Amino acid sequence: MTPDSPAPAQAAPAQAGSQTLSRGIRLLEILAAADSAMSIDELAAALGVHRSVAYRLLRTLEEHGLVTRAAGGLVSLGAGLAALASSVSRDLQSAASPELAEAADELGMTCLLVMLESGEGITVVSTRPRRAVAVSYNPGHRHPITRGGPGKAMLMELPDPAWPEDASPALRAEIEQSRARGYATSHDEVVPSLWSVAVPLVLPGQPLASVAAIHVSLTLPEAEIAERLHAAAANIARTLGAGRA
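RESULT FIELD:
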């Protein structure tokens, strides 16, 4: 080894640091996709690491407010994550929130704004109706765009080269039907028993998005729900100066 050659030992900390960061991000993704709080053992199993490794990761994330642990030790996402997420596409979220709240109250369904990120749909706004029993669906939830109404609504606007490679012929045929009628639907695909109706939201300078309504049953015919969602999407676009009055 020459004096100018890097010592092999110097590479290990960087690799270990990258692995720790990757595991921490993956842990947050697992919690975001979970339907309920998880134990440390469940998280360790999902990550494929020893319990002690998962515990160290949780301690660090907990210090930054990104996760929280209940008295029984169950772990869920913390308020600090919402604060970080609020800085992403803040204008879009601000424009969408009142429109989704109004649509949720009229439909009696939870309404969502979902954005395309790294090939997945991520929920950035979730609003429940004020005077009806509603589904809880937290911001930060991720799912493949090949499943669920919000993801399928975004597929309606994606050109074929941008589609996931595992998209089936049956899904492609379904999306063609969705394009013809102007909205996408799903049942029992992302969360068991939930129905969803969704429409695409395309805005200049913003990631591809969709507006969706979800519930354990459809409160109105699909086409009527979609019509209300299209109105919400159009109002969001106008608020951001992307549509015509």
